[in-house]
Amino acid sequence: MNVEITDLTRRFGRNQAVAGVSLRAGPGVFGLLGPNGAGKTSLLRMMATVIQPSSGELRLLGRDPGAYGQRKQIRRRLGYLPQNLGYYPAFTVVEFVEYFALLKEMPPAQVPGAVAAAVEKVGLGDRARAKLRTLSGGMLRRVGIAQAIVNEPELLLLDEPTAGLDPEQRVAFRSLMRDLGQRATVVVSTHLVEDVGAACAQVALMNQGKIVFHGTPQELTARADGTAAAGDAPLERGYSAVLAQARS
Amino acid sequence: MTAARFPVPAAPSRAARLSPVAAARLLRLELRRNPMPWLVPLLALLFWFDPFRTMQGYPPIWDLRASVVPNKLLPDFVAFAGGVSAWVGSREHRRRIIDLVTTAARPGWARQCAALVATTCWVILAYLGFSAVLYAVIAHQASWGGPPWWPVAVGAAALAAVCAAGFAAGTFFPGRFTAPLTAFGAFLVSVVTFQNAVRSTGGATLLSPSAVVPNLDAGVFYHYLPDLPIAQVMFLAGIAVVALGVLGLSPAAEGGLWLRRAAAAVAAAGLVAAGTAAGLAHTARLGPHGVVIPALHDAATDQPIPYTPVCRRSTVVVCLHPAFRAFLGDETAALDPVLGEVAGLPGAPVRAEQISTRPGLSGISKMQLVYGNVGGVPLAGSGPAAFPCPRRNCLANPVIQQVSALPPGTSAPNTVITEHAVRQLGLRAMISGWLIQTAQPLTAAQISNAKLTAAAAGMNVETRSSVPTSAEIINWATVFGIVLALAILAMSVGLIRSETASDLSTLAATGASGTTRRNLTATTAGALAFTGAVLGTVGGYVATTGWFRSKPFNGGLGTLVSSVPTVNLLIILVGMPLVAAAGGWLFAGREPSGIAHQPIE
Question: What is the architecture, at CATH level 2, of domain A1-77+154-167+181-248?
Answer without folding.
Answer: 3-Layer(aba) Sandwich (3.40)
